[in-house]
Amino acid sequence: MPNDNDLLDRYYSVIPAGGIGSRLWPLSRADAPKFLHDLSGSGQSLLRDTWDRLAPLAGEQRIMVVTGRAHRAAVEKQLPALQDANVVLESEPRESTAAIGLAAAILERRQPGVIVGSFAADHVIGEPERFRQTVRQAMVTADAGFITTIGIMPTEPSIGFGYIHAVKPLGVEGAPDACFVDTFVEKPDLPTAEKYLAAGNYMWNAGMFISRADVLLEQIGRSRPELLAGLLELAEAWDTPRRGAVVDQVWPDLEKIAIDYTVAEPSALEGKLAVVPGTFSWDDVGDFASIAKLHSGGRKSELAILGKNARILSDSSSGVVVSHSNRVISLIGVEDIVVVDTPDALLVTTSAHAQRVKAVVDALRLSGSGDVL
Ligand SMILES: Nc1nc2c(ncn2[C@@H]2O[C@H](COP(=O)(O)OP(=O)(O)O[C@H]3O[C@H](CO)[C@@H](O)[C@H](O)[C@@H]3O)[C@@H](O)[C@H]2O)c(=O)[nH]1
Predict the structure, then answer these.
(1) Which residue ranges form the domains of the chain, and what is each CATH number?
(2) Which part of the chain is the Nucleotidyl transferase domain (predicted)?
């Protein structure tokens, strides 16, 4: 087994920071996506939380961020230690296979044999040292040739996550908790998710993938040969003066598809997917109901308040208020309410309907009110 230092010398973290988080509108916008907000209560953005969690693994110089050109300034402000060579800018979003695959292809050219771990920019994770211990095990199984996921024990039949069925221990020295995966199902329908929850041996996919870059790229190539060809062409030109021209020519034609479909589902069928169960607390804070739950510690009668200068008067009310305006907000006798106040848009709903915010966003886009998105 390679020693820890040898693995860390070959390891890079990648943060794909691209999702807008439309279920968190009007807080989350195209120009202020979810990862730029403080939703954990740490006093800094989720992106910065992610950086701080990953930096102790192999150092700040070994973290790459993939984000949209429009977010460059905001990302660099959040992450002053981010090195220029570690910023990958997209002219437009092409989803996670392109974002993570390009980072892997660039890093593999710079350092053949590199191990890459990709981590969402916008999750809330507790117990950071436990998180890193889990990732260290995943580096070992990645080095042994497995594409490795991190699993979270499900608490409800969510249809917003991938589901991982772990079968037996992998038996790789240095990764005692790692298991073989025989099935990965991305975002199943509700009856299937209910079945998986009842079965008790499925985990949620935490949206983290750790693998050797060459193994990841080979898998993308088996699923989507044209997409891989585009990624390799981009990577070849990346550190040369030809980068701009090749990006303009190749990037817009890359297929938009999530890595869960191109890599996780097929590699499980081929016996190449592993999972390390995460023992840290994890929340993807995907909608306002989960924010309310996170900040009230699960106590239904509490009112969670987010916003530095929030001025809230509450009488017998519960749920969550996010205040990004200077208005005074008063609530009387409303339970499980969600109020999100910004200078140009106000959302009022309940926790039970929080998932439907995305439909509002779609309707606004269609109705020509895209200026508030
Ligand atoms: N740079 C960049 N990043 C992107 C893009 N599209 C998505 N991402 C990033 O890729 C990660 C995954 O985002 P999605 O593809 O939108 O996935 P999801 O709906 O959140 O589902 C994934 O995460 C769940 C856990 O939160 C998983 O359970 C699920 O299986 C899946 O991996 C996030 O960090 C997101 O910012 C893009 O075009 N560009």
Answers:
(1) 4-283 (3.90.550.10), 296-372 (no CATH)
(2) 14-295
For ligand 1, whether the C-beta of 17 sits within 6 Å is: yes
3-state secondary structure of 206: strand
- 236-259: per-residue pLDDT in tens? 999 999 999 999 999 999 999 999
Cα–Cα distance between 360 and 340 in angstroms, integer?
A: 14
Both tokens of 108, joined, read 């593999």
Q: Is the CB of 186 under 6 A from ligand 1?
A: yes
pLDDT for the residue numbered 254: 98
Q: What pLDDT is stored for residue 5 in this prediction?
A: 79
Atom of ligand 1 lying closest to residue 122 CA: 34
Residue range 258-265: mean pLDDT, rounded: 98
Does any ligand 1 atom lie closer than 6 A to the CB of residue 19?
yes
User: Looking at residue 298, what is its pLDDT?
Assistant: 67
Q: For residue 53, how far is its CA from the centre of ligand 1 (angstroms)? A: 18
The structure's pTM equals 0.95
